[in-house]
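Recap from last week: sequence in, structure out.
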Amino acid sequence: MMPSDNLTTYLVIGAFLLFVGLYGMIRHRTLIGMLISVELMLAGAGVNFLAFNRFTAPDPAVGQAFTLFIMGIAAAEAAIVISLVIAVHRRFHSVDPQAIDDLRG
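Predicted structure tokens:
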């Protein structure tokens, strides 16, 4: 199967990932589910950067650099959130964001 040579196809896939991630952020009740949703949103942004890079940019390195930067941000964000989830679970014995109300400063 050949990859599509149409920008619209990639933009629809990127928008789909973005909206699925947004829906997951609204609907999920656990911090891990919210983390996965944010990762989907970042993947959608990466797909859009690569699609615009492929079809409109004269220099292919620019879009690829932005996408690698997004992937690095996603990895760092995942590491920080996982450590926060572990710390919250140790203190409150729950990963339900609504059950964690003692975090007021």
